[in-house]
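Bug #77: duplicate submission created two jobs. Keeping one. Sequence:
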Amino acid sequence: MTSNQLFDLSGKVAVITGGNGGIGLGCAKGLAAAGADIAIWARSIQKSQAAVSELAALGIKAKAYEVDVKSSEDLGKATIQTVADFGGIDILIANAGVNIRMRPEQYTDDIVDEIIDVNLKAVFHCAQLVYPEMKKRGGGKIILIGSLTSVQGLGVAPVYSATKGAVVQLGKSLAAAWGADNIQVNTILPGWIVTEMTSVTRAVPGLQEHVLSRTPAGRWGSPSDFAGIATYFASSASDFVTGTDIQIDGGFTSTLAIFDLPK
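Kept job's structure:
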């Protein structure tokens, strides 16, 4: 098998939650460039249609579905419609997420429930729904989106951090449960990425300098940095890779600080 064949996604159908912007759209563009057809499940149909136009320009079939991932009814309907429109589902990227930042003592039950419902329950429900469709097609790929907070604490986002830690363990458990069905499950842990979600965080005084001082790559990440890893996890190149998680952070977690030794 050639390297091109290893990463070829022609004929594959990918569902990407929150795939109309940020990291989700970065992943979608990578998969589309490799030949996959794309179904975007997201709340803003207008934003999704703009993303569909970008993806369709790459020569693949793309369609948007108006979905609130907290709604079991929406997810169920989207699964049925996606299978009807595309013929099946081969790949899931469970990307939709929410982060409401505050100190632990400030959280209310409603806020806690919102974060858990989107970041954990919806991810699990999506995986449950696509499983039988992947099994029918002889296998599949599930890609979960964690965070650096999956492995590091963040005092102003404890509930988000807890859900993202749980996502890693969920990925490992799904990999164990569905490996015999030829379904591989892996998790991507994004670092400091320039997206709409991080716009408020990036405005915190001193944060930009702190991130750059810890990042060997010398920059913040961009959604396009996820095209390659998403394609790898979605392709046959990763058929013997499952239950893993990988940090896409420019080396942020690899070092305590960047400095030169005295000459």
